[in-house]
Sequence to fold (417 residues):
Amino acid sequence: MTWSVACALITSALARRSRRRGALAPRAQLDHLVKHHECKDKAVRFRATQMVGLIMNGLAEDAELSEDAFDAVQAAMLARTHDKVPLVRVHAAHALHRLQVPTEEDDPVTLELVRLMAADTSADVRLVALKSVGLSRHTLPHIIQRARDVKPEVRKATYAVVGAKLDPKWLSIAQRVALLRDGLRERDDAVRAACVEMVAVHWLRKAVGSASAVIATLDPEAHADVAELAARELVRVAGMPAELAAGAPWRNGAPRLRVEQALLLRVRFEMWAVGSASARAQLDECAPDVPALVGVLSAHAEQPAVLCELLRLARVLDLSDEAGRRMLGAHASALLGSTAHVARPGGAPLAVVALEVLRATHESELALVREVAELISELHDPLDGPDDDAGGEGGAARAPADACLLYTSDAADEEDS
Fold:
């Protein structure tokens, strides 16, 4: 029989005895073990600390421990957290789990577990301290910091702890975004898988299966890059959200999309577009025709973030129909020509995406350059300037249009040659 099996049997017997005796902890055994925690022999210190941890964590939830015994065990285990042998510190951290009061900011046990978790030189000690420390507003920032630990096993455990024990509502937006930004860009596959499980399993379950609700907690307008990473994992694991399935956004009278819904829709379509033949067939089945998409774009004219996602979605649609392509190009051109859209928050990326869509709707670069030149001329009309002199405002306004028209002339010369 191995020592670990013997310890388990002894602990089980002590726990049963404590329950039979009215949930009293085995005081004599703890006193005996505590007396040997400072022994010079590291094997004795290790076994004494291990047994204390097994007894403490094997007791029933309602087990009672006298104040003297509690103080003695706490003092002994706090001392062992500074032992020179890492394995002794591991079991000391494990033993302190039932002795902490994490809701108290100055609780010595909690403070020691936080110190071990953050600063111990042994990854094994940091790992056990991370799993042992209780969750509270005092310990949560320190737990989240372990997502950047130098050892991948500690980073992986951080995502497992946060996913299993924490409701994402307990985290601030900045904390959620930081966790996902680090975890979903991880080079270590195991750590990345733990982060994916956190967001696509635990967080999704706590959001009652609503992927859009998970994305909404990340403020997708302010953190578009991280929201897209999370959306790709949610779609990959959970598929198309129910509220967006079967072409719902394209139906007459469909409610307006929120930015998180538009993001999930665009990501799903992009993943279908680069997938297998069956995935592309599913894209053909669910994708709207271009006029229907233009109608949805018009319905969301006051939501730049949603417009960006829907315009990006347009790039994976079939634009072979000339009438639909012209409608989409006209809409993108109108967005580019609207100073009201470009000036508002989110307007700059909207202009970039609209230009990309406009490019996709033109068969030649020359036609695109000509149309963009006309748009710039309309935005900077020299006839409306107060002064026609080159040094006046009219001359400054004319410069962008003149430059673009010059480029158009050069492109025309190259095409003629």
